[in-house]
Amino acid sequence: MVLRIRLARFGKKHSPFYNIVVAHARTARNSRPLEVLGTYDPTPKAPRPGDTHGRPWKDIKLDVSRARYWVGVGAQPSDTAWRLLSMVGILEPQFRVGQIQGKVVKAETAAKSLITPTTGAGQEKVEA
């Protein structure tokens, strides 16, 4: 059965709190998971004392070694879990599927458009 790394919602009505869990793909969102990897609190907190930028922050607590294990054995993260795991440094960031002039652009095309070709050291320009 396919395993997913996803978020299970807890908390009150207007203050969500999520557990980052490993569960079977076909089970309900808040059903009993195989393992709880960490927590994510999306409500912005006041800036920390000593923070030079003074930006609000969101709390992510994650057992990195267990998350790497589950990704290594083939657990597929959801889109939101992928974003959180890439913020921690476990996965590479995904490119968002964008929309340019009413046309849907695939993720591969969006990734290629960010890479601009440059002249390498082995290539020489021929001047006329």
UniProtKB/TrEMBL annotation:
GO terms for molecular function: structural constituent of ribosome. Residues 48-57 have a biased composition (Basic and acidic residues). It holds the Pfam family Ribosomal_S16. InterPro entries: Ribosomal_bS16, Ribosomal_bS16_CS, Ribosomal_bS16_dom_sf. The keyword Flavoprotein does not apply. Keywords: Ribonucleoprotein, Ribosomal protein. Residues 35-57 are annotated as: Disordered. It comes from the Eukaryota. Belongs to the bacterial ribosomal protein bS16 family. This is 37S ribosomal protein S16, mitochondrial. It comes from Didymosphaeria variabile.
